[in-house]
Structure formats: structure tokens, C-alpha cells
């Protein structure tokens, strides 16, 4: 996927997930630095209905495979540092 | 949920998700610092079958609501710094 193109499409995601992938709602997961193939799978399942969520099934519906790949590449590309748990 | 108790239960999650919540497999999402209510929902749906995944449906099956709350509290408690995308 093309992260730069994904960033443009991510305008549609930012109300819930943030443009930096940091969730703005308790129901919405963080997406920053998320595993890219996992994001592709999640969006594809939301689009095709195998995974159910009222909002995501609607917003994912019009996405092409290419747009899904771009969005996944964008959110996966955001760098995250994990502080090892005590 | 009790993050300390969750850390003990997370031994069962670490092969795929890491004890620090950093994924070890392309199919497994990162869990570090993930939104706590989202994690509770995901695990509950995996346990109850509303969300389908061969591995997660099996490993979530025996979890009580309390164990789910503890696991969610543990992974949510891991601190993550997000570097704003360029």
C-alpha cells in the first residue's frame, strides 16, 4: 500500500481514530503503528461483513482493495515507541 | 480490571501478542496501550463468538468477565509514545 495516498483517505477515519491513529472514542481502537496485514484483514472483513460493527461496515463498504492497502500502510507507518511494562 | 492480575493471565497471550503487547505474528495486532473498553469488547466478542477467529475463539472461551477486564487493563496500561506522522 501507499502510505501517502492512505494519509489522504484517512481524513475519513480521523473523527474516531485520529489522523495520528490515537483513538478519540472508547469504542475505537488506536491504529498507530498497528500491524499492516492485520489492518488489511480488519478493513476487508468490515467491508465484506465478516466482522460486524455498525459504523465500520458503513464506512468500509465503498473501499477498494487498493484503498484498504493504502490506509493500512498509512496507519502502520506511524511510529510508536512502547515502554516495556514494569 | 486489575492490571497486575492481567499480567499473569497474559502469559497465555504472549506467544502471539508479546508480554509487552508488541505483535510477534503478521495476523496478530499490537495490544500495547490499546483502548481498554475496545479490548474488553474484542475479548468478549471472541469468547461469545460474535467475532470470529480460529485461535481467539478457542483461547477466549474459558475467560470470565473478570479475567477479560484484567487482561484489558494490563495491555491498556502499557505506555506507548506515538510519534506524530510527518
TL;DR of this structure?
The structure is a homodimer of 86-residue chains. In chain A, 51% of the residues lie in helices and 3% in strands. Chain A is globular and about 40 Å long.
Question: What brief labels describe this structure?
Answer:
homodimer; 86 residues; mainly alpha; Cytochrome Bc1 Complex, Chain D, domain 2
What does this structure look like?
Two copies of one chain form a homodimer. With 86 residues, the first copy, chain A, is mainly α. The first copy, chain A, has a single domain (3-77), classed as Cytochrome Bc1 Complex, Chain D, domain 2 (Orthogonal Bundle), CATH 1.10.760. In chain A, 51% of the residues lie in helices and 3% in strands. Chain A is built from five helices and one strand; from the N terminus they run H-H-H-H-H-E. Chain A has helices at residues 3-9, 14-17, 36-48, 54-60, 65-77; one strand spanning 80-82. In chain A, helix 1 crosses helix 5 (65-77), helix 3 (36-48) packs across helix 4 and helix 3 (36-48) packs antiparallel against helix 5 (65-77). The radius of gyration of chain A is 13 Å and the shape is globular. The N and C termini of chain A lie far apart (36 Å). The relative contact order of chain A is 0.25. Chain A binds chain B through residues 7, 19-23, 26-30, 32-38, 41, 50-52, 74, 77-85, and chain B through 7, 19-23, 26-30, 32-38, 41, 50-52, 74, 77-85.
